[in-house]
Amino acid sequence: MIIAVSNGKGGTGKTTLATALAGEAAHRGQRVLVVDLDVQANATEHLIGVGDPLRKPQGDAGRALYRAIMDGDAIKAIASPSGIDLLPAGARTQTLADELQRLASTSNEALGRSLASLRSALHEQTAGYDLVVLDTPPSEQSHALLDTFLVAADAVIIPTKISAADISGAVKLLQRLAALDRLGTPYAEPLGAALMAVPSGAKRLLAHAERELEVITRHIPLFNTRLHYRPAPISEAERRHTTLRQLQASLPSAGERLAALRSGRTSSDEHLTAESLAKTVDEISDLYHAVLQRHAAQVAA
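Predicted structure:
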């Protein structure tokens, strides 16, 4: 299964959601590949770090992905410390975007054939994985790169925060899907929209956001699970290049932390405990389960 995590706008939580779903699948014993398609390489930074961007960046700067798409080479993924395989992004990702943009300037008939061919090739190349998660760029970065991988994916999840700009980005994503529909080639079926970084206790704000979201929920459903705003564990998982599940397993319990504080074996600013990640991990687990259910229902239909 190939799932794209996409919104037409940047900063909506795409990378957070993509890596979280990948981590949950890996926790359940699945073989997982994350494909970083954003020139900013946020998923790459989360999973393996960036190294020295000016001298020796981590990964391959997007070369393996470029060669797989443009030259038909076999995919050469990098094994991350979290156990998730990664096709990194970087400077070469922009070159790929430029090449695909030139391809998009051809006739609709030729473009449709090319996209269908790329879809087939990516499915063949990733057949050994149980789950492939595409962390896509915003549409403003490259319509062609986004369209290529929306065609390659089986399904798409649209993350959005509670803001008019983020909801507008979700609408732009639906417009890209409508444009692909006119090409007559298979493309990712929307599984639903996921609310990200929801403030705890903001019932009135959430109710207002859901009214604003009606512009997209009349076309696709909203996932019942909301991912609440808890930046500390997400930032720590990124810093350690690990998944939230792995971070939780590495942390002390509240009782262990208290005992360490009393004995002077830890500092008071080490505030995370295994219990403090429980709600975040549970939300991701619930959302992943809902994704599987909706995808199975789409396949059955």
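Summary: The chain has a mean pLDDT of 87.
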